[in-house]
Amino acid sequence: MTMIFGLTETLEDKLRLFRSMAFDNQAMLNFLDQHPLEDIPHIDEKCVIFSLKGEGDKTLKYGVHPMKYTCIDSYLQGVTLRGLKNQMFVQGIEGVQRLSSFGFYEEIPGLLGKFEYLPGYNLKLAPKAFSQDSEKVFALFKEIDATLAAMHAKKIIHKDVKPGNIVYSKERLHLIDFSTSTNFTEELMDRTLGCIFGTPGYIFMGSDRSKDYFALGVSFAKVLFPELSLRKLDVRNIAGLRIYEFESDMRRDLLKEFGYSFTEYFNDLMHRKPEIDYGSVAERIASVPHEEGVNVNYSFNVGNTTFVQEPVSTSVYSI
Questions:
Q1: 3-state secondary structure string, 279-292?
Q2: What is the pTM of this model?
Q3: Residue 212 has pLDDT above 60, yes or no
Q4: N or C: at which end does the chain have fewer Cβ atoms within 10 angstroms?
Q5: Please, are residues 18 and 32 in contact by the beta-carbon 8 Å criterion?
Q6: Closest by alpha carbon to 123, among 56, 78, 169, 62?
Q7: How far is Cα of residue 29 from the mean position of the Cα atoms in its chain?
Q8: CA atoms of 218 and 215, how far apart (whole Å)
Q9: Best CA proximity match to 182, nearest among 71, 96, 307, 76
Q10: CA-to-CA distance for 118 and 78, rounded, in angstroms?
């Protein structure tokens, strides 16, 4: 199925495209027949953000499989529900988009929400003037830095920090799209299963740095230099990874263009300590007695763990 985005102007055009994305999800098509739409502020090949008549202050999101562009399968349904649960767990933290339910809306696979509507724009689509106001960018990133710190204190990792998931609205930045977020236990399970979540260019696969802050550092650079290539950070080409070279280039360019404080902050973000002390966790697992063949659920005092079985070999997901 071929779809063309960016050429739709009217709500009717967007709705037709929306229906074509939900071609294999009869429950979603029935929902669209039964509920008049107010607006579709965003639509791309992976998701649609829309509001219903009379509910402009709330939005829903429908997402499809990120690689097949079909209704999400049972595995990704589990991953998404896990992410919504974690988003609910950090409600009340400044800079986290408000969510009213952690299940699929009306039990329709792929339909999420309702979310607080955030008038504004994500940083991937920010106007040129935004990136040019470097001091404002610096101050705003310090706010989202604090948001992540508060989330990590609750043992939640976003796992897909990037400009497209950071929205400028109401004079501050907000994190959206927690579809792949995990608590610390779930992150350990994902690592054990060999499953990688995130967006190529923003993923750090090692265990000696924070995943979220590494991604925030890359996002900081990308917002200040919108044309910046992230090819050297693309984990799909392991042989071509040049993380230290990328960092060196960015320190040089930031220093030249914006000064020492920007360079220092970028370097700090890229090298924050990991959210989890993996060595300590491994020791704790080794110390837990269990019989051979018995699955043990390690919660580590997180309190909201959901296990999601990975049915395939190592792969990169960006939801």
A1: HHHHHHHHHCCCCC
A2: 0.86
A3: yes
A4: N
A5: yes
A6: 169
A7: 26
A8: 5
A9: 307
A10: 26
128, amino acid identity: K
Give yes or no for residue 5 having a pLDDT over 60.
no
Backbone φ and ψ for 160, nearest 5 degrees, come out as -145, 45
Only one residue has tokens 């739409």, namely 37
Structure confidence at residue 191 as a pLDDT band (50, 70, 90):
confident
SS3 201: coil
- Which tokens in the block code for residue 303? 């309190």
Q: How far apart are CA 299 and CA 58, in angstroms?
A: 33
CA dihedral 96, 98, 101, 102 (to 10 degrees): -10
pLDDT tens column, 157-182? 999 999 999 999 999 999 999 999 99
At 85, phi and psi to the nearest 5? -60, -40
Report the pLDDT value the prediction gives residue 296, as an integer from 0 to 100: 38
Residue 273 DSSP symbol:
P
Which of 138 and 301 is assigned the larger pLDDT?
138
